[in-house]
Design a protein that fits this description.
alpha+beta; Poly(a)-polymerase, middle domain; five-stranded mixed sheet
């Protein structure tokens, strides 16, 4: 019954949180000899089916989920252009619990997934989402968070395109046998309630538990499920540069299970097998082959550090590969146990032994799945956004709205002041940084002047020393050609050169050659001298220009001071912006409720009102909007007028138009950043 890591000599002090493991190691569990009580198993089956019926997805939940996806699609596709956000996972496959999460995949080319996810996590924090967590140590990195209003958890991955095929495979498995869906949901629910369905805490993911459950139905004595992964090369896809065989059989294949056990019996047998015949000692869970694959055959032996070593050595953070291997059906080199740590493995084992013991003691489903960590239970999704408003009077809601407007105006002013200060700090930092760059450039140019001056003097000396009796090179070359022709060309008159004449010409020819080398060297020194002098003049002119551009900023401090100021202001801004977003959402919610109530009252008898002049009305609404923006007090009549003229949105539009005009004005605003004027003789202006 004991697992490999339970047979080893482990310090019991390290296992104090895992009492069922300690009991198993002490030999206190011998339930495998007992037979299940048939009445209890029948009752368990009824309880699980009742639980399953309660997990059906309602239309309000679908609408709420779609609303969240629509909101996320808007903010993400605006940030990542040419991207696509799509839903996959348990909700699409039909294996979602009523309070299950939303699995989303962002398809985006341009940046590494981890970098994109970091940006997404930052955006979600700014958007006011709850418990935003970035998980980068998994094969498929994700961002986990909870939608603040509905309390629905959401997972976002990037370019996780293979998940579409995984989702389709799970959907087909569910369609084969009516017992599959309640069986898998029961396993997932138990794992989540008992805190072992969270990769962030070192335990299996919901997807891993689904594969474990499917594999159990494939490997039972009378299989409930066949293997739908064909892997015959009929459907090959390339994702991220890797090729995958995603060929699968349809759910209408010729398969009929001989197993007639109820869901309750299957659950009982599942946990009994998991407790007494721990599959991971020698095997790999492989739903893609429909069997338990030998570790040796797969090549997935447990690598160091081992589970028992890691639990004793608190410094070991990660386990070695393939601790409790679960193979992905299509990505056969992906082991879903990569997220596990030692505490997570022992907690999984402890919970398996716990439910095994409780099943043998005939505990009902509610006790088996009692929530272990209440702080992680977010309850049912909050689908009614107006639940707290239904019992309130309209006047109370308007008073609350009035208070919210005042709070919002205060926050708006605080944000505006800090944003302005931060922008000024950034501008000043850029100006000082540019100033420092100009100073360094001047220093570099100045450092070049002295050695170049020495080089100029050296080249000038060489040129002058070789410039005595200088004859232009082209004169010498012309004379050389004449002498050469005289010595080599036949005479047209038939009279040949005398020996003395020929001797004199040869002597002159050799002398001209010597003069030619001397003249070329002189010309080289002269050109080098002119080049260096020209460089020196340009550098001097450049330094003069830089000195004119450098601002005297000794009293301003260093640019790093302004960088630090900008960072501090950003730290102050983030919570203020979150609070502003929260207030805006609450204002929008109250306004929506009042509009809804107003539309319901539209069938009531209408009374004619005396209309005031149009100009007066427009002037009044402008005054009310100005009061909201400035934070001044206003009456309920003012609030009524504001609600009838667009509510908070109209105030935001007015604020945005003011910001646009401010942006236009900024174009004419003088900047502190140094800029270069005409360079005169600078090389950049030639």
């Amino acid at each position: 019954m004991l697992t490999n890591f339970e047979r080893l000599n482990v310090d019991k002090k390290r296992l104090v949180d895992y009492q069922h493991v300690i009991s198993a190691m002490a030999g206190n569990y011998q339930f495998e000899r007992n037979r299940a009580n048939s009445d209890f198993v029948k009752l368990l089956d009824e309880q699980i089916l009742t639980f399953f019926e309660a997990q059906k997805i309602t239309k309000p939940l679908i609408n709420r989920r779609n609303g969240i996806i629509k909101h996320l699609r808007k903010i993400l596709t605006n940030k990542f252009h040419n991207s696509k956000l799509s839903s996959f996972g348990s909700f699409e496959s039909g294996l979602s619990l009523s309070n299950g999460d939303i699995d989303l995949c962002l398809e985006f080319d341009g940046e590494p997934p981890k970098k994109v996810l970091k940006k997404i996590a930052r955006m979600l924090n700014e958007d006011g989402m709850k418990d935003v967590k970035l998980i980068t140590n998994a094969k498929v990195p994700i961002v986990k968070f909870i939608d603040t209003q509905s309390m629905i958890p959401v997972d976002i991955s990037v370019n996780n395109n293979l998940s579409v095929y995984n989702t389709e495979l799970l959907k087909r498995y569910c369609n084969i046998d009516r017992r599959v869906k309640p069986f898998i949901l029961a396993v997932k629910y138990w794992a989540r309630q008992r805190g072992i369905c969270d990769p962030t805490s070192g335990t299996f993911s919901s997807y891993a538990w689904t594969l474990i459950a499917i594999n159990a139905l494939q490997t039972i004595s009378e299989p409930v499920l066949p293997n739908l992964c064909l892997k015959n090369g009929s459907n090959l896809v390339t994702i991220g540069g890797n090729q995958y065989d995603v060929s699968m059989a349809n759910d209408d294949i010729d398969f009929k299970s001989k197993n007639s056990k109820s869901v309750g019996e299957l659950i009982y047998e599942f946990f009994t097998t998991l407790a007494t015949k721990w599959p991971w000692d020698k095997s790999v869970i492989s739903a893609g082959t429909g069997k338990l694959v030998s570790r040796k055959e797969k090549g997935w032996e447990h690598k160091k550090p081992y589970i028992s070593d890691a639990i004793q050595d608190q410094k070991l953070v990660r386990l070695g590969k393939h601790s409790l291997p679960v193979e992905d059906p299509f990505d056969e080199i992906h082991d879903l146990s990569i997220v596990l740590d030692a505490q997570g493995v022992y907690e999984i084992r402890d919970e398996v032994l716990r439910i095994y013991s409780m099943l043998n003691d005939s505990n009902d489903w509610a006790n088996l799945c009692q929530i272990k960590y209440p702080e992680l239970d977010f309850g049912a999704p909050q689908l009614d956004l107006f639940a707290d408003l239904r019992g309130k009077q309209e006047s109370e809601i308007k008073d609350d709205l009035k208070t919210l407007y005042r709070d919002l105006a205060i926050i708006e002013r605080s944000v505006s002041v800090r944003e302005s200060e931060r922008n000024e700090a950034i501008r000043m930092s850029k100006a000082l940084r540019r100033n420092a760059e100009l100073a360094r450039e001047q220093s570099t140019l100045s450092a070049e002047l002295r050695p170049r001056r020495s080089k100029i003097n050296e080249v000038q000396s060489k040129r002058d020393s070789s410039n005595n009796n200088y004859i232009p090179v082209h004169f010498i070359e012309d004379e050389l050609l004449k002498v050469y022709l005289s010595l080599t060309k036949e005479s047209g008159t038939g009279v040949e050169l005398s020996f003395d004449k020929e001797k004199a010409l040869f002597s002159w020819f050799f002398e001209l050659q010597s003069m030619h080398e001397h003249a070329k060297l002189t010309r080289k020194y002269h050109r080098e001298f002119l080049r260096l002098v020209n460089q020196q003049e340009q550098s001097i002119e450049h330094i003069k220009d830089i000195r004119e551009e450098i601002i005297s900023v000794s009293s301003f401090g260093n640019f790093t001071d302004f960088d630090d100021l900008a960072k501090r202001l950003l730290i102050e801004l983030n919570p203020l912006k979150k609070e502003r977003r929260k207030l805006r959402r609450e204002v929008g919610r109250l306004e929506a409720w009042l509009r809804k109530q107003s539309s319901q009252d539209s069938n009531r008898p209408k009374f004619k009102r005396k209309h005031s002049p149009k100009n007066k009305g427009s002037r009044d609404i402008k005054q009310v909007k100005n009061k909201v923006v400035s934070g001044d007090s206003f009456s309920l009549q003012d609030l009524d007028l504001l609600l009838k003229n667009g509510g908070l949105n109209s105030v935001n539009q007015q604020t945005n138009s003011n910001q646009k005009s401010t942006r236009k004005a900024k174009k004419n605003k003088p900047t502190l950043q140094p800029h270069r004027g005409k360079r005169g003789k600078s090389s950049k202006n030639i």
